[in-house]
Amino acid sequence: MIKNVKHLKLQLPPYHFNESVIIKSLRKIYNLGQMEFCNLLGYSQSALSKIENGILSPDLKFVVQLAKKLEVDLNIFSMGHIPFGPQPNSSGDKRSKYLASLTNEGFIHSKTVFLLLHGVRNKFASSILKKIDLLPEELCLSYLKYNFLLIEQLAAHVTLDQLDYIIHHFNPHAETKNNFELIKMEIKHSQIFKIQEFLNDKKFCKYELMLSSKVLPLTKEINPKIIYSLFIFDLMVKFNLPVDNLEYKSIKNNFEIKFKNYA
User: Fold this and answer.
1) What is the DSSP annotation of 98-137?
2) Rounded to the nearest 10 degrees, how much is the dihedral formed by the CA atoms of 129, 23, 52, 128?
3) Which H helix or E strand runs over 94?
4) Which residues, 6 or more positions from 252, have their beta carbon under 8 angstroms from its beta carbon?
5) Is residue 261 packed enough to be buried (19+ CB in 10 Å), middle (13-18) or exposed (0-12)?
6) Which of 173, 135, 145, 146 has the alpha carbon at shortest distance from 26?
């Protein structure tokens, strides 16, 4: 599957973030300055600065107050990658409008985009992050799902070799058991493919897919294998699937995915 990847020096970062990164990202996602944040939580700016820089650990009172005021789940601190944050507003500022254009009817998860942008590490990734005006950590910790517009932009700058490398070096934070029905539901909701056939036995689960009429026009400009690979990687990220747990291949506009059955 991987071809000529010796020249690729890509490093995929972990997406399990510590308390200081989550707190700082949360403040920025909600567009709050340090002083505003301090007033909201009832803490001094010097204490917040130390917490955001990892010098001081937040106490229980701080965490509870933060969760209450910003209406986020306390589990974000134990899990380290549960998404949060408001959806972008197409009638808002320039950043919100740009985000809205990329996320309208989105299906690619923010965590996937975060890992992809870190994987390619080129001018394209930097320009996307600059336009979005978010740190990579904030991008990963947001609710955003990206649409076909981002696929078009990614396809113009990411090679199949890079995608294969990223897929084969993905290391899930916590492997989970395959839930074939949830995966099936995710495929349907993505509107990228139509499920031609679904087989499930003791050894494996196989999906035979065909590109939907919504996506077919994109194949005039984008190699379908790019779309397949992006979608596979998105499934891996969402369901914490290691690469040795699946097989996939494409034939023209048809696509086959096999998942090993550990149940």
Assistant:
1) HHHHHHTT--EEHHHHHHHHHHH-SHHHHHHHHHHT--HH
2) 0
3) helix 94-103
4) 224
5) middle
6) 135
Mean pLDDT across the stretch 77-88? 68
Q: What pLDDT score does 4 carry?
A: 34
What does 211-260 look like in DSSP terms, one character per residue?
E-TTTGGGGGTS-HHHHHHHHHHHHHHHHT--GGGEEEEEETTEEEEEEE
User: Residue 256 burial (CB < 10 Å; 0-12/13-18/19+)?
Assistant: middle
Report all structural domains of the chain as residue ranges with CATH numbers, in order of start: 19-79 (1.10.260.40), 94-168 (no CATH), 180-260 (3.90.1070)
Determine the Cα–Cα distance for residues 160 and 166; give it in Å rounded to an integer: 10
Tokens 């991987």, residue located: 2
As a whole number of angstroms, the distance between CA 73 and CA 57 comes to 18
Which tokens in the block code for residue 147? 């649409």
Mean pLDDT calculated for residue range 128-136: 71
Rounded to whole angstroms, the Cα distance separating 136 from 29 reads: 12
In Å, how far from its chain's centre is CA 136?
10
- Helix (H), strand (E) counts: the chain: 13, 6
The per-residue pLDDT for 8 is 37
Q: Mean pLDDT in the chain?
A: 77
Q: pLDDT tens-digit profile of 195-231?
A: 888 887 777 788 888 888 878 887 887 888 888 888 8
Q: How far apart are CA 81 and CA 10, in angstroms?
A: 22
